[in-house]
Amino acid sequence: MLSAAVHISGAGPVPGIMNLSQPLTPISRAYLAKSLSNSKPVLHDAMKSNSCLNKKPIVKLRREINISLVIAFGFCLISIVLTAQAVVLVPPVSTRSNIANGGWSSLGAMPAPAWDGKTLMFHNEQGTLAVTPLSDDVIRVRFTRAQAFGRDHSYAVVDRDLGGANVVVGIGSDSTVLRTATLKVTIQHDPLRISFANNPGEVLDADDPDRGISFVGNQFRDAKLLRDDEHVYGFGEKNGSLDKRGWQLGGYNLVMWNSDTYMHNSSTDPMYVAVPFLLVMRHGQAHGLFLDNTWRSSFDVGREEPNLLTFGAVNGELNYYFINGPEPKKVIERYTTLTGRMPLPPLWSLGYNQCRFSYFPEARVRKIADTFRKDKIPADVIWLDIDYQDGFNPFTWDKDRFPDPKKMISDLRAEGFHTVCIVDAHPKQQVGYAPYDEGMAGKFFVKKSDGSVYEGKVWPANAAKNPGPSVFPDFSKPAARLWWGWLYKDLLNLGVAGIWNDMNEPSVFDSVRGTMPPDLVFDNEGQPSTHLELHNVYGQLMSRATFEGLSQFRPNERPFVLTRASYAGGQRYAAVWTGDNTSDWSSMRQSIPTLLGMGLSGFPFVGADIGGYAGMPSPELYSRWLQVGVFSPFMRSHSENGRPDKEPWAFGKKFEVINRHIIELRYELLPYIYNAMQQASQTGVPALRPLFLEFPDDEKLAGTDDEFMFGDDLLVAPVLHEGMTEREIYLPKGDWFDYSTGKQFTGGQKIKLPVTLDSIPMFVRAGGFIFRQPVVQSTDQMPGNPLKILMAPAGKSESSLYEDDGETLDYRHGEFMKRRFHQTGDDQETTIKISAADGSYRPVKRNLVLETWMDHQPKSVTLLTGYEMAGKILLPHLMGDALAKSKSGWSFADGRITVKINDGFKPMQFVIER
Length: 914
Ligand code: GLC
Known about the structure:
Structural class: alpha+beta
Oligomer: single chain
Radius of gyration: 28 Å
Helix content: 10-25%
Bound molecules: alpha-D-glucopyranose
Strand order of the largest sheet: 3-4-5-6-21-18-17-14
Strand content: 25-35%
Number of strands: 51
């Protein structure tokens, strides 16, 4: 509930606004004049893109003619396509110059607002503006050119009820000030400009005094000041550097328009996913901005004008949320309270996934599975791409290639494999094909403005037999989503474990834009609108239909859905992979900032095609990429069709051994990975984290995107360059322990580490707990295996471990086990306490193995258990491999002490006397 005391104060200075000239880089008229006359060349947001929006015909051609010819032809086509796209879809951006000459108006004076206890409402002939505090830390700003707001509807936001705020509002004649416990929002009336400050009065975010909100036609743009010492992150799936200030404040102009970007590279924009959310960091303090608008939007991070952050869309409302931190993790937590969080994934989906376009026929699929088991390379999932289908038609099987899918899937399951099948967004237009007939009967397909059903060419148009155009479900129609969800019934009855939704930008082959025409009509949940409004949300709504369908049929199982396209909030329904990347070193390096940025933007379950989709990696590149993949929340190797084999064994014996070790590491770390993913499902804070998120006060880490944290305690600096023999690593402040040797390093500096082909430099934070297990061949084999806990020494630290059955929703009813781990250490002894378990789930009987590094052999290890730790057992010291054979005891070798006991899931304490 909002409680408010309204003070009507007289005119007077508005501190938030007046302060601006101090902390912000001054923007003088002279500077403006200079920057306008001298403006650097600005690549148009779509023109600078390398995206190949019209990829599919290229893919088809590639089969017929020489690849290089196709690439050359492709680039010509790209320029034509992009020029056309830019002309058709991209209205000019409102810059200071075109405000002056392009018909843009800036929001002028607004009379003093009305306050109804929840919202401040401003009106003038230019429009209506509402400022609503949703909590002490989240303020919503909504502006429409109309005299009243339209439907308040969002595909992203699930919860605006954020608990309310204790608000004090002061309405003066010049300005209105709204205070919450942590924020001070100052709204200057003439011209209307908004600024957000924290309680000490430090300005966090402020409109550009010259411009603020501006508009022309249906378009709007908000201009905010950007300081040189601010770093800007997020924006969902974006290539380029992690910090969108770019190199030496070069800045990025980023577009939100979901696009099929075959062979994307570091300058490709837009990509497949639209998340209009950003996180600003300045000297350890963070805030976020989320523009909830599904139309084509764009963000200019100091590119057009170095000290301006501007954002806007071609239509719809200016509807943004200011999200306070000050810790960056708090911004993500609050953003994902608004837009929802990733549900806890099934454990098997966190294992190793093997895919290719496409494994067929059945014998080949079986052979792939058998090879994993025969060669003892762990794996959990085999993926079937479009060639399993009859003529690439969703919900069909090619019976020549797969005569008995049920038997094949159940045999694979017996070998410990789950099967995931692709289902694209484009049923073929063909009478007699059930998805088409039913969709027509239900009026479930996207329509043209004349009411007829839209048809476009996608994969079914490339089928060898009986090719034809496709129709496209209108996923913005609730009944169509329900129907689409039901279509999964047969696949699920065959035992399919998860679904992969692709081509849902939506991608259309035979169009200049690479997608549907702008004027198609969508239901938009009861308020019909055009493709332009629904485009960015199409993939998110498709994955929602899938997720809800799977939930219907398997009500107590965790659905697994992978999608290529999505919109803010899409984390509620599906994991995302970064589409059709390239088999080269720079693409591998690029995958890190891209995945880190997605995690910051609410999408923690993400991965890139390991090895690269288009092209063929060298054996070294494939292994290095697999090493990066160990720390991708979603770990899948995938490949384009027509390429040589890219399985972990396909690069020769020497690399098979290396690749096996890498995948084994993933399985060894699975308890830790699962724990970190569970945290992400609770808080939104991703498992894969940029260093600045964990160490916000260390300014040196601002742009770091070649090393990262996984979970709370593991720093990873993968080798990212060919032929590297030494890796330079910056370790943040504090002590760090080399994961494999236990060697201790002091942080706050760069170190150099010699590396070989199988090195993955990894460091455990002092006091960190890494939860592990012995290598297993699939997650099926986990129960009964010991829980291994690697603990890095420190004066004091704590952690927790979450476990459950890994597949059902019983955890929602308390069927989980969560234990806290606490350690203290000094010269005399190290004490490790394990708390009583929360939740009613208990794993099957197993051992607990505790490992930590010590510089000399300890004197004794005592175990205390039971009520008030009354039971005291002096554990036996065992030599050689005696510990392996014994039920309990401890051993010491190579600076590492190992303690083994039966894990009774009861509170216990170890005392290691030095
Ligand atoms: C798209 C996907 C790719 C898939 C192919 C065939 O290009 O991005 O992963 O293999 O379609 O379905």
